[in-house]
Structure formats: structure tokens, C-alpha cells
């Protein structure tokens, strides 16, 4: 484990690099074993993996906008026992409602020791998930128009709008998220297979491109 500033990165006991969402999922599973019924705060970009883990322990997932400020605000709410951004930023509200890499590293060691478990064992028990993401260039002038057209086109399939446009397709979903600092859209898709996620991502990325013409 390495605490890189406010984020942590992990290699499991088999020498495998742990992806950001799997690391958060493993920590969420360990925390909720102790804090059953607790809430886990994650950004709208998080895969349904987090909901699946929360449901194991009677927990709840709080979705936030995809920025650190929103995640920290959610971490301060009653009942939230963990928050994370999927990129190594972990918040333990019992300590403080902000990211702390050193504390998160020490806490993960503590959680593993308390369960007498190896990180690979916890990771091996996580539900599978498949996501794909890409970036679509879009001029600043066209961003508002594209968002309005997407909102109208998918008004019957939109989930609760927290950030960007999230299209609910049952077992699948697509998030079209305007970047606040750059002239691009992020397109993130989740499906039941890697191929399905890529197909969805490509389809909606092409749609975002076509709406600019």
C-alpha cells in the first residue's frame, strides 16, 4: 500500500494491482461488516458494485456529484460510515469528513487484521462488474445545447439527475457527464459484460458527437 498524498493505491497479497473501484468495494465490504445498515457515499460515476455490496449488509448508497467537495459534504451526513471517489480517495467520517491517505492505509490494515483476512480474499468475494468510459470533444458553445437535447430525448429513462444525464437501461446504465474544466463530455457505461459496456459507450459517444452537428 502507498499513500500518495490524499489517495491510496494498493497491490494485493498476490502482487496484483487493485483497481480503484475494487479497492473501495473491498473497504466498503469490510466496514459494513462492522457497521451494518451504514451508508456509503460515492459519486454518480460509481458502478453498481457499491449497491451490491451495501445490500449484503443492509446498507445504503448515497450518490453525489462527481467532485471532491460534494463527496466530503455527503461524508458529513448522519449515518455515512465511508465515502470514496473510486480513484484512491477514501474518507472515514469517524476520523474526519475529508480524504486522508495515511489514515485510510492504516484503517485498511486494521480492518483486514480484525477479520483475519487477506486483501485478495475480500476482493475475490466482490460481485463482478463491467464498465467502459471515453471522452467526446465538444465546444463550450455546444455543451448546453447537447445537454438540453439529451435531457429531452431521455426524459422517460433518466434516473434522478445528480450530475450529468444518467440513462437507466435496467441492468445497464450510461452517464453522459460534461467536464467542468475542459471542452469534453465523459461517457461512462455499465453492462453485464465488457463487450456490452463498450458497445453502450460507443453508441452514446456517437450520439453526443452527432448532436453537435
Short description:
The protein is of the alpha+beta class and 213 residues long. The protein has 7 helices and 10 strands. The chain starts with a strand and ends with a helix.
Description:
The protein is of the alpha+beta class and 213 residues long. The chain contains seven helices and ten strands. It has helices spanning 20-34, 49-56, 68-75, 101-114, 119-124, 140-153, 194-210; strands at 2-4, 7-9, 39-43, 60-64, 80-84, 90-91, 130-137, 165-169, 172-178, 184-191. Strand 5 (80-84) and strand 6 form a beta hairpin. Helix 1 (20-34) runs parallel beside helix 2 (49-56). The longest helix has 17 residues, at 194-210. The radius of gyration is 18 Å and the shape is globular. The relative contact order is 0.14. The mean pLDDT is 93.
Please describe the structure with a list of short key phrases separated by commas or semicolons.
single chain; 213 residues; alpha+beta; four-stranded mixed sheet; 7 helices; 10 strands
Amino acid at each position: 500500500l502507498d499513500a500518495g498524498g490524499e489517495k491510496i493505491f494498493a497491490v494485493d497479497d498476490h502482487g496484483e494491482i487493485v483497481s480503484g473501484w475494487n479497492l473501495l468495494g473491498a473497504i466498503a465490504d469490510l466496514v459494513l461488516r462492522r457497521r451494518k445498515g451504514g451508508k456509503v457515499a460515492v459519486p454518480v460515476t460509481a458502478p453498481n458494485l457499491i449497491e451490491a455490496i451495501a445490500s449484503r449488509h443492509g446498507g445504503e448508497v448515497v450518490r453525489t456529484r462527481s467532485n471532491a467537495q460534494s463527496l466530503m459534504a455527503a461524508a458529513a451526513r448522519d449515518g455515512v460510515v465511508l465515502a470514496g471517489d473510486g480513484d484512491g480517495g477514501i474518507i472515514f467520517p469517524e476520523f474526519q469528513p475529508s480524504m486522508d491517505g495515511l489514515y485510510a492505509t492504516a484503517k485498511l490494515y486494521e480492518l483486514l487484521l480484525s477479520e483475519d483476512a487477506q486483501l485478495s480474499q475480500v476482493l475475490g468475494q466482490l460481485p463482478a462488474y463491467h464498465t467502459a468510459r471515453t471522452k467526446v470533444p465538444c465546444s463550450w458553445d455546444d455543451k448546453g445545447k447537447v445537454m438540453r437535447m439529451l435531457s429531452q430525448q431521455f426524459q422517460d429513462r433518466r434516473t434522478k439527475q445528480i450530475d450529468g444525464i444518467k440513462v437507466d437501461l435496467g441492468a445497464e446504465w450510461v452517464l453522459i457527464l460534461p467536464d467542468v474544466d475542459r471542452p469534453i463530455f465523459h461517457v461512462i457505461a455499465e453492462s453485464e459484460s465488457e463487450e456490452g459496456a463498450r458497445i453502450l459507450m460507443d453508441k452514446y459517444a456517437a450520439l453526443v458527437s452527432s448532436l453537435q452537428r
